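Researcher: We're teaching a course module on how sequence relates to structure. For the next exercise, students receive a sequence and then see the predicted structure as tokens, so they can try to spot secondary structure elements on their own. Here is the exercise chain.
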Amino acid sequence: MTIWQQVGQEIEDFLRDIRSLPVSSSLAPHVVRHAIESSFDFVEPISLPDLTRQLIGLLRQYSVHVTHPRYFGLFNPSISAASIVADTLVALYNPQLATWSHSPAANEIERVTLRYFAHALGFDADNSSANFTTGGLEANLSAVVVALTHRFPSYDRGGFRSLEARPAIYVSSESHHSLEKICRIVGLGADTLRDVPTKTTLAMDTQALRDLINVDMRTGWYPFLIVGTAGSTGAGIVDPLSELADIAAASNVWFHVDAAWGGAAVLVPRLRPALRGIERADSVTWDAHKWLSVPMGAGMFFCRHAHAARRAFDVSASYMPAGAGEETADQYRTTLQWSRRAIGLKLFMCLAERGRSGLAERIDHQARLGDILRTKLRDAGWIVVNDTMLPLVCFTHESIRSNRCTTNDIVESVQVRGVVWLSDVVLARREKVLRACITSFRTDEDDLDILVGELERARIEGARTPGGLTTPEK
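Model: And here is the predicted structure for the students to work with:
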């Protein structure tokens, strides 16, 4: 068997076996560390077939299998075979997307793919710009840089010392924490984030936003960016995007939508209304690796104003190959990255293989399972606490609220057994609840029944165990 046959066989075996594998194993760090350090000293060479075999064993044994149909955790989808092929071809050909002339095919493949998704958002693909990113943080960072450059004409040359007022970014407590990192990266500081209260639904309170902007404008702040969330990480909440767009327009503020996970809902007609207003955003973050069945990392950044993105990132370097003309744009001049992998090929192949209806059917399947899970949980006595059309269910139980057991007890018990995987989360900085997100197109109703059964077993066990449960070392 050649090395390529060996790898191909593992791909086939893993995709076939994934449902029968434990979702996770409870292991102490020193166990995993010893398994690796005892096998690899980097002194004696290891044949590639033996090395591949060992790595397959390590990854199978010491991983939370996020592509498992009973993984109900963070936004990590099952992976389509087409996207695995795509990443393999990218590794083989290693196209450099910094300039169009070095990789015409890869650049044009990404262009046609991004145009499709820009159109799905409701953007004018001819006058907007779009590019692939490593993930949501880079896309959100791109939005902050573009908004700064657009709203402060002197920023690109003079930086913050040229500004006459302190910039303000408006977010809610349910916004993604990448924005805090971004404020540190660009030198704004975390205090730049103006925390807007949420309603009981966990969506941003638009009247509170208006009031805060008015106060800030009178007290030396310069509102320049509003960030709405379309599918929050904690509870899958979508902010009132149309209202946010109205406020941004009235205040001359850049409107960015972080739709890293929830953006996929625009592909499904019955889910599309939940994201009404996203077409009015100045920029959008959308991660293909969260709900479009492709491997990490594959983020996307869309900007409705192509000239603004070009101005924010444009540089000129004599050592770079000459451009191919007005009809093409070298990505090192229009995006945050310089050297860049062909990130978009895996999404292109996934879309081309499934077609627009096939991809939408996968999204819709998971969303419908979310509705079914809510019903199954309620029927079993659990209390669903979030309201969203997206397949993310937050829930608790009277046993938890009365302190007969805790969410920690239940999560520990479930994860130790390895039959399913889920997590807990604090919502609105108040209540800690359980969180189950359907991230796999392979998940079915039987998997939901197993999840509810595991929750019931863990709840009863937790209530009977004073002091909670402990995780054994292996």
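Model: If you want an answer key for the exercise: The CA atoms of residues 117 and 267 lie 9 Å apart. The domain at 88-350 is CATH 3.40.640.10 (Aspartate Aminotransferase; domain 2).
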